[in-house]
Specification:
By secondary structure, this protein is α+β, with helices and mostly antiparallel strands. It has helices at about 10-25, 45-50, 55-60, 80-95, 135-150, 155-165, 175-185, 185-190, 195-205, 250-265, 270-285, 290-300, 340-380, 395-405, 410-430, and strands at about 1-10, 25-35, 65-70, 100-105, 115-120, 210-215, 220-230, 240, 300-305, 315-320, 325-330. It is elongated. The relative contact order is 0.07. This is Relaxase.
Length: about 425
């Protein structure tokens, strides 16, 4: 089981994100504590927001008072609604939020049923509830709850990451925005990538692409991101979605900062050397692109290749799902750069083309030699007395013309001879 903790300023954004799924019948309000409830037991966003109002008004100095926590059992776990409610209460109590108002939403929009908890991290007097060693405490609590509720266990952080699976967007299933949100909100928490290209390569495996947009507002240049859903062929199949719809982690500013942090982590990453060796061995053991990609995929490594309109490889990216890292080929060294793969996979085609061209040239040269040889024989045979009795066939007139015009200087006797042959040929055709 994995718990992901987000902190922010926008309470309404967190509530709308969850309640929108309730309206789409992809989620339900599973449990509430200290929340205003309507007489018929229903809830609305404004009603839920009012339950937190006094806490926010009392807030003293906490910059990000809103808590948005997701708790994700393994997809193979079968958890009842009663157990989900109990897990949420136990988790909040052990994290120090047992006296806080909170609402629990159960999400069923993807094949991994999970819960979201929206709460506040300041008490009634506006004091911040301690978040010291928060992630460490959260992991310990998750291990304890796994045992208590007989859930599939994740031993350490690395193993946790392996159990957390991302489902590619299926535009035919509808509610594309929610499907994309379930990916974009958490992807940077699990994978390390240090460039926009690497990020897009990872997204492409999940049927998503992102593009940068630039503009000016009051003379100030603004930059942002828009996301699209893709079909299985990599073609856009949705309208653009602004990054702000998916939270801070999907935005331009946050990702720029994330790239820099990832560069530091990946510079001396312990899995880099072994990953490079694996790619090199598979490259040496294969002679074509498809076999190479399939072999790496069997070892948990995806390969994303970028091509120009002419089909030339200009970029290659490797996604290692074991270490949750993304690398451009050139980061391992020049021997794994895009140009090397372009040459390596297409060398046979180029050799065949070269061989075919040489054979064509050889045949053409041989043909020309035959024609020129025949022309020389004809030239020696012909004279003014017998020229009218000669029948020219198989384009020898062209060979004669070529032979004569190939000299650098002009030979007027030869030109006259060629004209005479042409004239006789025309007369004979008539």
């Amino acid at each position: 089981m994995i718990a992901i903790i987000d902190r922010g300023k926008n309470l309404m954004g967190a509530l709308y994100y969850n309640y929108h799924k309730v309206e789409k019948e992809k989620a339900q309000v599973l449990f509430t504590q200290k929340m205003i409830e309507a007489p018929d037991g229903s809830y609305s966003v404004s009603q839920l927001a009012n339950s937190f109002e006094l806490y926010l008004l009392a807030n003293r100095k906490t910059e990000k008072p809103v808590l948005h926590i997701s708790i994700n059992p393994d997809p193979k776990d079968s958890v009842s609604d009663a157990d989900f409610s109990s897990i949420a209460q136990d988790y909040m109590k052990q994290m120090g939020y047992e006296q806080q108002p909170f609402v629990v939403f159960k999400h069923t929009d993807i094949n991994r049923t999970h819960i979201h908890i929206v709460s506040i991290c300041v008490d009634e007097e506006g004091r911040k509830i301690s978040d010291q060693f928060e992630k460490r405490r959260s992991m310990v609590i998750c291990r304890s709850l796994e045992k208590e509720y007989n859930l599939i266990s994740a031993i350490d952080k690395k193993e946790n990451s392996q159990h957390f699976t991302f489902t590619p967007v299926d535009y035919k299933s509808g509610d594309i925005k929610s499907q994309m949100a379930s990916v974009l909100r958490y992807l940077p928490k699990y994978y390390k990538f240090q460039s926009f290209g690497a990020y897009n390569a990872l997204l492409s495996r999940l049927n998503i692409t992102v593009e940068e947009v630039k503009g000016e507002y009051n003379g100030i240049t603004k930059q942002g991101l828009v996301y699209f859903a893709l079909n299985d062929k990599g073609k856009k199949v949705s309208s653009p979605f602004k990054a702000s719809l998916f939270g801070k982690s999907a935005g331009y500013t946050h990702l720029q900062s994330y790239y820099e942090k990832s560069k530091i982590v990946l510079k001396d990453h312990p899995d880099k050397a072994s990953l490079k060796t694996t790619i090199e061995k598979n490259m040496q053991a294969t002679t074509n692109e498809i076999t190479f990609i399939n072999r790496l995929q069997q070892q948990g490594i995806d390969t994303v290749i970028r091509r120009s309109k002419e089909g030339r490889i200009y970029g290659i990216t490797f996604i290692d799902h074991s270490s949750k890292t993304i690398w451009n080929g050139s980061q391992f060294g020049k021997n794994l750069s895009a140009n090397v793969f372009e040459e390596y996979w297409n060398k046979d085609d180029k050799l065949q083309c070269s061989s075919h061209e040489n054979m064509s040239n050889s045949k053409r040269d041989q043909s020309e030699k035959i024609d020129i040889g025949q022309a020389h024989e004809l030239f020696n045979f012909l004279d003014k007395e017998n020229i009218q009795n000669v029948t020219l066939e198989n384009g020898l007139i062209n060979a004669l013309g070529g032979l004569f015009s190939s000299h650098q200087g002009q030979d007027y006797d030869e030109e006259a001879f060629a004209k005479m042959i042409k004239k006789k040929t025309k007369q004979r055709k008539r």
